[in-house]
């Protein structure tokens, strides 16, 4: 310790700060008038295509709930931080939300790695967290305080394999992006192949920023598979589609739900023709049959999002939209007690949301079934429902 | 055999892009001994300018190309004047850190101006792909490979046959001596910056149709171009071309023959090995200090 001399008064200052915190601790603050709800989204950075619409949708949902009188007469207030898809920043944001802002629940983060990083903090603090990420590891095994609204990769893979079975495709090649989304996809594709009678001939990967995937496609073609599955988020899969078209690949190409947005058709252009992919129903809301329970919710969400932000709505924003509405439902009659919120979340059944119909239980914290996805194909630059 | 040919074509296309970027690094290094880590962002700016001018404003292609290249050259000019020139103590490390900072700034600027989404640009020619023994070479690949060849020849001519080029090379050898003989050394440095930026922008222009353009595309490309320049020998014109093509082909072959997950690792491992044997790069002739 030699050489380090504490300045007098530092101790006193620290004490004062601690005392200050004690005085304004959330327990007895008069702030009980509003329910503060935290949000952590990747608003900027590589996953901004998720975080940006999620932030907007959360704000929109909070406004809508407040406009109809809030929950039990108390307004909601959204406190939103940007995680930039970085797990470290997400952890900081969670700590800030819990300890500084004193929120009663948290929506987000947007993607899987930050979600996995923050869930222990939510568990320890005993605060309900509704993630907007796809990774199955977030809610399996079930953690008492962690829920999620995004459809899992498991369901997307199942949808693709069922479509392949209908089409009689047995031997496939897979091409996944070298990041958490692609890894998780590759894992699920391999895990579920056998039970659907599908054989994976070859698995290849590409970098998220790669400019040309011809080499990977050439290698996959040399194995003569019946079909290819590409698993990634924009812009990589659009390059894959372009390369496949240039090479005259001559086999069906499946994409993941990661590109289920109009942007993909714009990027891939003509090369998008004939591609098949699993997608949330929001993409084909107008094509759904009138007796689909989600149709009204979806059309309402699409209309209000477009009116509020002058942008087309995407399925990604729906994750946060659903999370806020589920939370509002669970908040009713809870008086802000976190344990009660958690318990009521687990009891929600048949909540019709943008991403699907949620049926939570003590053992199911994602609550979506296989019908949350529909298979679509791209025809003349438009989405078409595959029956 | 058909596969190997396809890997080669794919590798040459990618490699030609790395070569263009490496040329930019080399020219600037030649005149200033500076490595510009913002060079990749010039590629991004070139591609995104083309998105705006061609796809957005529907200008005729040649005009859009010219204006985009000029715009990136202008950015290079401002960069040198506003960020590099005023530095009071131009230590090497200070300047390199400034370029790192500039790259973050340009990326942020790109995000603000063009948003976070990617854009697609159609191919320059409507011609169909060429097929050689079952392997496909797209028309845009031919454009890219052709551009590299022409660019390298023009630069070769510029440095060997014109007074300005020779003056620039003289500055590279000794700026003080060049200045004493009446060469405007400051002007040469500025010219090198602008030239390097224009070449970077050109890289962005030719790559735009084969990939997707977004504000964050520059970093990886810049890094690959830098490696290509190192591989060929920093400061060497033909070294940059050779280094770029070699890196592209190595990457593509490692995908085909080893594993796509190890693509970057394999290519960079080979690069390290080559630099271990020849620290000055394949065609570099400067004496190199080992740390």
Give a written overview of the molecule:
The complex is a heterodimer of chains A (387) and B (291). Chain A is α/β, with parallel strands linked by helices and 387 residues long. Chain A has two domains: 33-152 and 298-369, 3-Layer(aba) Sandwich (Rossmann fold); 154-286 and 373-385, Response regulator (Rossmann fold, 3-Layer(aba) Sandwich), CATH 3.40.50.2300. Helices cover 41% and strands 18% of the residues of chain A. Chain A is built from twelve helices and 14 strands. Chain A has helices at residues 10-23, 48-67, 87-101, 112-125, 153-167, 180-193, 214-221, 236-246, 262-268, 295-309, 315-331, 338-346; strands at residues 34-41, 75-82, 105-107, 129-131, 146-148, 171-177, 199-206, 227-231, 253-255, 276-280, 351-352, 357-358, 373-379, 382-385. In chain A, the strands form four sheets. Chain A has a five-stranded parallel sheet. A four-stranded parallel sheet of chain A has the order 7-6-8-9, with helices on both faces. A three-stranded antiparallel sheet of chain A has the order 10-13-14, with helices on one face. In chain A, a hairpin with a 2-residue loop joins strand 13 and strand 14. In chain A, helix 2 (48-67) packs parallel to helix 11 (315-331), helix 8 (236-246) packs parallel to helix 9 and helix 11 (315-331) crosses helix 12. Chain A is globular, with a radius of gyration of 23 Å. The N and C termini of chain A lie far apart (74 Å). Chain B has 291 residues and is mainly α. In chain B, 72% of the residues lie in helices and 3% in strands. Chain B contains eleven helices and four strands. In chain B, the strands form two sheets. Chain B has a two-stranded antiparallel ribbon with strand order 1-4. A two-stranded antiparallel ribbon of chain B has the order 2-3. Chain A binds chain B through residues 44, 46, 48-49, 52, 178, 204-207, 209, 211-212, 214-216, 218-219, 222, 234-235, 238-239, 242, 246-248, 263, 266-269, and chain B through 3, 6-7, 9-11, 13-14, 17, 111, 116-120, 122, 129, 135-136, 138, 207, 210-212, 214, 216-217, 219-221, 251-252, 255-256, 259-261, 263-264.
């Amino acid at each position: 310790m030699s050489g380090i001399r504490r300045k007098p008064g530092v101790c006193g200052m620290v004490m004062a700060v601690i005392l200050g915190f004690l005085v304004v601790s959330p327990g007895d603050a008069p702030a009980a008038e509003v329910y503060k709800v935290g949000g952590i989204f990747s608003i900027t950075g590589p996953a901004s295509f998720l975080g940006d619409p999620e932030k907007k949708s959360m704000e929109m949902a909070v406004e809508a709930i407040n406009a109809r009188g809030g929950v039990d007469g108390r307004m909601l207030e959204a406190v939103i931080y940007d995680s930039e898809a970085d797990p470290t920043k997400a952890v900081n944001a969670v700590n800030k939300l819990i300890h500084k802002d004193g929120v009663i629940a948290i929506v987000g983060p947007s993607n899987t790695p930050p979600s996995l990083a923050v869930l222990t903090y939510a568990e320890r603090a005993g605060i309900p967290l509704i993630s907007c990420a796809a990774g199955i590891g977030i809610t399996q095994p079930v953690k008492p305080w962690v829920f999620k609204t995004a459809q899992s990769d498991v369901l997307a893979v199942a949808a693709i394999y069922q479509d392949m079975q209908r089409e009689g495709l047995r031997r496939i090649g897979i091409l996944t992006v070298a990041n958490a989304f692609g890894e998780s996809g590759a894992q699920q594709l391999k895990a579920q192949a056998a039970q659907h009678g599908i054989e994976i001939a070859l698995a290849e990967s590409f970098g998220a920023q790669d400019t040309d995937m011809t080499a990977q496609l050439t290698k996959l073609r040399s194995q003569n598979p019946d079909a290819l599955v590409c698993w990634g988020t924009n812009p990589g899969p659009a390059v894959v589609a372009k390369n496949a078209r240039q090479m005259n690949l001559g086999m069906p190409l499946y994409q993941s739900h990661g590109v289920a947005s109009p942007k993909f058709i714009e990027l891939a252009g003509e090369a998008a023709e004939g591609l098949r992919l699993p997608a949330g129903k929001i993409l084909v809301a107008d094509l759904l049959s009138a007796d689909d329970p989600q149709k009204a919710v979806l059309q309402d969400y699409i209309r209000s999002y477009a009116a509020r932000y002058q942008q087309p709505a995407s399925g990604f924003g729906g994750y946060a939209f659903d999370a806020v509405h589920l939370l509002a439902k669970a908040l009713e009659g809870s008086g802000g007690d976190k344990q009660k919120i958690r318990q009521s979340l687990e009891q929600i059944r048949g909540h019709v949301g943008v991403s699907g119909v949620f049926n939570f239980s003590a053992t199911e914290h994602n609550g979506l079934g296989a019908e949350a996805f529909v298979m679509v194909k791209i025809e003349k630059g438009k989405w078409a429902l595959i029956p | 055999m058909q596969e190997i040919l396809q890997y080669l074509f794919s590798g040459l296309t990618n490699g030609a892009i790395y070569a263009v970027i490496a040329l930019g690094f080399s020219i600037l290094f030649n005149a200033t001994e500076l490595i510009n880590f913002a060079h990749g962002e010039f590629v991004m700016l070139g591609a995104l300018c083309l998105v705006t001018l061609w796809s957005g404003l529907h200008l005729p292609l040649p005009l859009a190309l010219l204006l985009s290249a000029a715009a990136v050259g202008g950015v290079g000019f401002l960069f040198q004047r506003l960020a590099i020139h005023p530095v009071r103590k131009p230590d090497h490390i200070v300047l390199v850190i400034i370029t790192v900072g500039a790259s973050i700034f340009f990326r942020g600027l790109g995000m603000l101006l063009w948003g976070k989404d990617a854009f697609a640009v159609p191919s320059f020619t409507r011609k169909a792909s060429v097929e050689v023994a079952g392997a496909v070479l797209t028309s845009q690949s031919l454009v890219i490979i052709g551009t590299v060849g022409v660019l390298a020849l023009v630069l070769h001519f510029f440095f060997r046959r014109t007074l300005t080029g020779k003056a620039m090379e003289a500055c590279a050898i000794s700026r003080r001596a060049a200045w004493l003989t009446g060469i405007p050394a400051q002007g040469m440095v500025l010219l090198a910056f602008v030239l390097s930026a224009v070449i970077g922008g050109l890289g962005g222009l030719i790559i735009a149709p084969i990939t997707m353009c977004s504000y964050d595309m520059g970093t990886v490309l810049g890094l690959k171009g830098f490696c290509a320049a190192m591989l060929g020998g920093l400061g060497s014109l033909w070294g940059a071309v050779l280094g770029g093509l070699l890196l592209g082909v190595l990457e593509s072959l490692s995908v085909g023959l080893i594993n796509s997950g190890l693509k970057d690792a394999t290519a960079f491992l080979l690069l390290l090995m080559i630099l271990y044997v020849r620290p000055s790069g394949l065609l570099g002739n400067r004496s190199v200090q080992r740390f």
